[in-house]
Amino acid sequence: MSFDPALVRKDFPIFQTTMRGKPLTYLDTAASAQKPQAVIDAISRFYANDYANIHRGVYELSATATRLHEQAREKVRAFLGAAESREIIFVRNATEAINLVAWTYGRSQVNEGDEVVVTALEHHANLVPWQMLCKEKNATLRIAPVDASGTLDLEAFAGLLGDRTRIVACTHVSNAIGTHVPVEEITRLAHAKGIPVLIDGAQAAPRFVVDVQAIDADFYAFSGHKLYGPTGIGAVYVRGEILDEMPPYQTGGGMIERVTFEETTFAPPPERFEAGTPDIAGAIGLGAAIDYLEAIGLDRIERHEAELLAYGTECLEAIPEVRIIGTAARKTGVLSFVVDGVHPHDVGTILDGEGVAVRAGHHCAQPLMNLFQVPATARASLGIYNDREDIDRLAAALHKCVELFH
Ligand code: PMP
Fold first, then answer.
1. For residue 125, which atom of ligand 1 is closest to its CA?
2. Measured in angstroms, how far is the CA atom of residue 31 from the centroid of ligand 1?
3. Rounded distance, CA 59 to CA 319, Å?
């Protein structure tokens, strides 16, 4: 079946609004996706009809809320292709997902003289926690390099894996330049040396089918708000065998089995890692977002965005003053660029005047920007509601920007 972004846009109330009297051209889905009515409705329905705290209630409303919360976990499990729903831990976002793994599994496994391997493509969320952990443990952080196109150098990556490597943390898709990393190859190389792998799926999960078992990931992190769901909710998949060995993260209510003044035993996963009252409505909203995306079909979304990315690349390449940053052969969803003689923030402001929303900055990937020797870029990123007209508006606004500055 063909894919019609115009019909998809009708599901998103935000597109009824205009920006500076112009239709909204939203090209910032990599930062956060807009929300379909189905997600908004699921959240408000829950608050209006079914709201109570979960787990501890003996009354019907609490049982309903618990059931809805656990249904959402099951939706995430199926969405990621995990074997068991206990392998899905709800967190606030991808950042918290990675911190959870770093400060539980990481802290228990990484010791003085050990090594952690990440790539030069990482978002700060998948770099800083590992850097901190290595500092705390007197361990070494190794960075797998990329080439001039922003493609990960797999040979160099493999060369970094050694006897002291305790974990690999790698993005699936770069938010800053769109590089799509062959994570199956990453896990194959790492597992051959018995090293577990965390994949940061923040930019991947909304864009194509993710199957954690096919990837053979040990940890897989994503954020709900980039997946057309609400803010404040995300999840991390943890492979069952590792899960049982992992020490708790935050402690308190909801994650215990038995507490005395002297000692505490912990609940089994996933509750062990979900201390305190969780974002119940957020989980339910995330479940609704997954239902929405699956009704469209992730494979159709992938094809649509690939076609649009190719078109966008062509349009930007046709403007001599524009230089695309990140030209890997395999890219997904993101077009980063600079305009000769114009600061990326000025590009963003001029585009905003045309109703075109892009992000300008370092995209939480300062070391990567340094490699490309740019302080920042402007970044157009795609979502299910974008079409060729959005790209045409971006190109027209860029022509205007070039005229103004040259
Ligand atoms: N990793 C990647 C690749 C991202 O794009 C982002 C968000 N830009 C994050 C991690 C962090 O996501 P969040 O801010 O939702 O925690």
1. 10
2. 8
3. 64
Q: Which residue, 107, 215, 221, 120, is CA-closest to 166? A: 107
CA of 202 to the centre of ligand 1 (A): 5
Helix (H) or strand (E) holding 72: helix 60-80
DSSP three-state, residue 260:
coil
Residue 57 has pLDDT above 80, yes or no: no
Q: What is the pLDDT of residues 82-100, one digit of tens each?
A: 999 999 999 999 999 999 9
Of 301, 276, 380, nearest to 36 (Cα)? 301
> Is residue 1 scored above 70 in pLDDT?
no
292 with 228: CB under 8 angstroms?
yes
Q: For the beta carbon of residue 260, count every other beta carbon within 10 angstroms.
A: 7
Distance, CA of 233 to CA of 224 (rounded, Å): 5
Looking at the domain that runs over 40-294, which CATH code has it been given?
A: 3.40.640.10
Model pTM? 0.98
Q: Which residues contact 22 (CB under 8 A, 6 or more apart)?
A: 354, 355
- Contacting residues for 239 by C-beta, under 8 A, at least 6 apart: 87, 196, 212, 217, 218, 219
Positive or negative torsion for Cα 281, 287, 291, 297: positive
Which entry of 134, 170, 315, 364 is annotated as an active-site residue?
364
Q: Determine if ligand 1 sits within 6 Å of the CB of residue 171.
A: yes
370 vs 212: CA distance, rounded Å: 32
pLDDT for 77: 98
- Nearest atom, ligand 1, residue 231 CA: 15
The reply to whether ligand 1 has any atom less than 6 angstroms from the CB of 99 is no
381 Cβ below 6 A of ligand 1: no
Matching CATH topology for 5-30+297-401 and 40-294?
no
Annotation says 401 is catalytic: no
Between the CA of 94 and the centroid of ligand 1 the distance, in Å, is 6
95 touches ligand 1 (CB under 6 Å): yes
157-177: pLDDT as tens digits: 999 999 999 999 999 999 999
Helix (H, G, I), strand (E, B) or coil at 331: strand
Domain ranges of the chain: 5-30+297-401, 40-294
The CATH fold assigned to 5-30+297-401 is Aspartate Aminotransferase, domain 1 (3.90.1150)
125 lines ligand 1 (CB under 6 A): yes
